[in-house]
Design goal:
The complex is a heterodimer of chains A (517) and B (183). Chain A is mainly α and 517 residues long. Chain A has a single domain (20-500), classed as Cytochrome c oxidase-like, subunit I domain (Cytochrome C Oxidase, Chain A, Up-down Bundle), CATH 1.20.210.10. Chain A contains 16 helices and 2 strands. Helix content of chain B is 23%, strand content 36%. Classes of the chains: A mainly alpha (517), B alpha+beta (183).
Chain lengths: 517, 183
């Protein structure tokens, strides 16, 4: 330990230390989470009662679009990259990430990407208003001029993601401590390795899609314009060829996190480790061959609908394996319910619920009914929020003592969990009812019969929003005035290399690789 | 050793990422077109029908509906003269579409056909069609444009109604006549 961190702002600007970069990723993604959350609050405030209350429909469309884009690309994805930066070297016994300078670059281009994206809010024509899926021709022929900022923003975000993934793959494949064989990797590392391969495969496809949009809008090509021999449906195929693996990119690291948390608080090793690895790989593979289940209403031939329907249902098998393994890990364990465990159990329950509604949506004839309704909104919030965001919250509470050397306040943590849990369900269960009753998504107003459940949903959303401010308070108060927690093994049942290090983890760790039995 | 291995894997992954970008922009769109053409999914009709006359199947009657749409800001008046006809498979039928150029300038238009349901596209034969050529109209001029078609007797039994849709494009500024060849 010849030297510690640099002084002043230079420590962060020129950071090459995986912990510093991880910290920056986590704070950046949390700030994006609050921004996207603020947009969500505006949406729910407008939908609190029928009729136009607070904002204009044009602005409402910008809010739904920006909420989706910021949450997917700004909050969830970078937060897991941050977690990967912090934890992967600690979990595999590496001194740092394999490509520390690229790590710095991949973080520091992110704020510029999102500045480009968010700056459109203050421009003439407004922010992107075509939905986060930016279907052509809404995003080409009928888009505001600011769409070019959106396109370049996505390019930058995509480049950052690809660099981050390359770094993770190189680290996991090359920097494992002696004796740390692939089948001894902690599951969080495994899920991230597979996620990183997915990212390298599909982020360029997203970049390709927005590049084709750019060409159509500015350079007279007609990839997606029927008038020039192109096809708007082609856009949907390309987008979902990226988009479906993308949802597993978001959820797989979350699976990894709860595969760490559940064994710790069950005081048992994870049940079915190798089946978890294979199930994760199977999900990753299947994610590439099911994309058109998002497009059942485009007029596919019956053979296509049947294929995509059955292939999609097949994903329930490896996912079921995972859920089974988590439950079996808890079975007959000596369980305790600290905050991270509460979040992990909530993920298992709520994600399974979201998975079931996903199965309902996979059934082509039913999907034609549910398509573009609030049922879909309810479904994907159960997997994105209750799956990814809940597990991220759990991960922060789980590793916070390792990061800061201080313990969060358990009562406050549990309170935050319960407010988030109750608020979330109040917000999103009613949206399933609304969707089944026929309320379409992405509208600023609705028919009177939807009033009651919308009001309930909005109240739940405000509760969930308040829980996030409490989360911020809990994290800051832990850092500022938490009780010191310096033992190496914060949690009695925790396994893994990160728990052999002092708390807080020193600036440089595993400068000499540990021996793994 | 480890530096070398890291460089190697990084290079491979960068190449893979670039490959996927190339795949998305340069391979997927043409592949999609080929796929649609082979399967007939897009409802694209084949070119001019050159086949011999076939026996008329008097037992079966198919409803043919016509749709005429202007693309984008195309200002012409464009509509079928008859919106719906009934034909027996194998029977040759002639219909007309009306077009008028209400603008103050001379224009050229190109119609692009599309058939619904998709699995009828291969059995809807056009022996003559205004869509095989571009249609010029002087300012204020109007015309009737002809279409002669045969529905093949092999048309799947499940199909009782075929919708033929024409979209009219403004090709005044386009110099190429390549579009017509595809119809």
């Amino acid at each position: 330990m010849a030297h510690g961190p640099a002084k002043g702002i230079g420590r962060w600007l020129f950071a090459t230390n995986h912990k510093d970069i991880g910290t920056m990723y986590l704070w950046f993604s949390f700030s994006m989470f609050l921004l996207g959350g603020a947009f969500a609050m505006i949406i729910r405030a407008e939908l609190f009662a029928p009729g136009m209350q607070l904002i204009k429909p044009e602005f409402f469309n910008q809010m739904t679009t920006m909420h989706g884009l910021i949450m997917v690309f700004g909050a969830i994805m970078p937060s897991f990259v941050g977690l990967a930066n912090w934890m992967i070297p600690l979990q595999i016994g590496a001194p740092d990430m394999a490509l520390p300078r690229m790590n710095n670059l991949s973080f520091w281009i992110l704020p510029f990407g999102f500045a480009l994206l968010a700056s459109t809010l203050f421009m003439e024509g407004g922010a992107p208003n075509f939905g986060w899926t930016f279907y052509a021709p809404l995003s080409t022929t009928y888009a505001p001029d600011t769409v070019n900022f959106f396109i370049f923003g996505v390019h930058i975000i995509g480049a950052s993601s690809i660099m981050g993934s390359i770094n993770i793959i190189a680290t996991v494949l090359n920097l494992r401590a002696p004796g740390m064989t692939m089948m001894k990797l902690p599951l969080f590392v495994w899920t991230w390795l597979i996620t990183a391969f997915l990212l390298v495969a599909v982020m360029p496809v997203l970049a390709g899609a927005v590049t084709m949009m750019l060409m159509d809008i500015n350079f007279g090509t007609s990839f997606f314009d029927a008038a020039g021999g192109g096809d708007p449906v082609l856009f949907q195929h390309i987008f979902w060829f990226f988009g479906h693996p993308e949802v597993y990119i978001i959820i797989l690291p979350a699976f990894g996190v709860i595969s760490e948390i559940i064994p710790t608080f069950s005081r048992k090793p994870l049940f079915g480790y190798s089946s978890m690895v294979y199930a994760t790989s199977a999900i990753a593979f299947l994610s590439f061959i099911v994309w058109a289940h998002h497009m059942f209403t485009t007029g596919m031939p019956i053979a296509g609908e049947l294929y995509f329907m059955y292939a999609t249902m097949l994903i329930a098998v490896p996912t079921g394996v995972k859920v089974f393994n988590w439950i079996t890990t808890m079975f007959k364990g000596s369980l305790t319910f600290e905050t991270p465990m509460l979040f992990a159990i909530a993920v298992v329950i709520l994600f399974t619920f979201g998975g079931f509604t996903g199965l309902m949506l996979a059934v082509a004839p039913a999907d034609i009914q549910y398509h573009d309704s609030y049922f879909v909104v309810g479904h994907f919030h159960y997997v994105m929020v209750a799956g990814a965001v809940f597990s991220m919250s759990g991960a922060v509470y789980y590793w916070l003592p390792k990061w800061t050397g201080k313990m969060y306040d358990e009562t406050m943590g549990k309170m935050q969990f319960w407010i988030a849990f109750v608020g979330f369900n109040i917000a999103f269960i009613p949206q399933h009812f609304l969707g089944l009753a026929g309320m379409p998504r992405r509208y600023a107003d609705y028919a009177l019969q939807f009033s009651d459940w919308n009001m309930v949903s909005s109240i739940g959303a405000f509760m969930y929003g308040a829980a996030q401010l409490m989360f911020l308070y809990n994290v800051i108060s832990t850092i500022v005035s938490g009780k010191p927690s310096t033992e190496e093994k914060t949690w009695e049942g925790a396994q893994g290399l990160e728990w052999t290090l002092p708390s807080p983890a020193p600036f440089h760790t595993f400068s000499t690789p540990p021996k793994v039995k | 050793m480890s530096i070398n291995a890291t460089q190697k894997i990084t290079l491979k992954l960068v190449v893979a990422a670039i490959g996927m970008f190339v795949f998305a922009v340069f391979v997927m769109p043409p592949l999609y077109d080929v796929f649609c053409e082979l399967t007939g999914i897009g409802g694209k009709t084949k070119g001019q029908y050159q086949g011999a006359a076939v026996a008329v199947d008097g037992e079966r009657e198919i409803k043919i509906q016509f749709v005429a749409t202007n693309n984008g800001a195309m200002p012409w008046e464009f509509s079928p003269v008859e919106y719906q006809v009934r034909v027996h498979p194998g029977e040759k039928k002639a219909v007309e579409f009306y077009a008028r150029n209400p603008t103050a300038r001379d224009m050229v238009a190109q119609a692009v056909p599309n058939v619904t349901p998709n699995n009828a596209a291969d059995f809807f034969h056009k022996t003559e069609c205004f869509c095989f050529n571009q249609q010029p109209l002087k300012s204020g001029e109007e015309t009737k444009m002809g279409l002669v078609f045969i529905v093949a007797p092999e048309l799947p039994a499940s199909v009782t109604t075929i919708t033929l849709s024409y979209t009219l494009f403004d090709v005044t500024d386009a110099t190429e006549t390549a579009v017509a060849a595809n119809n």
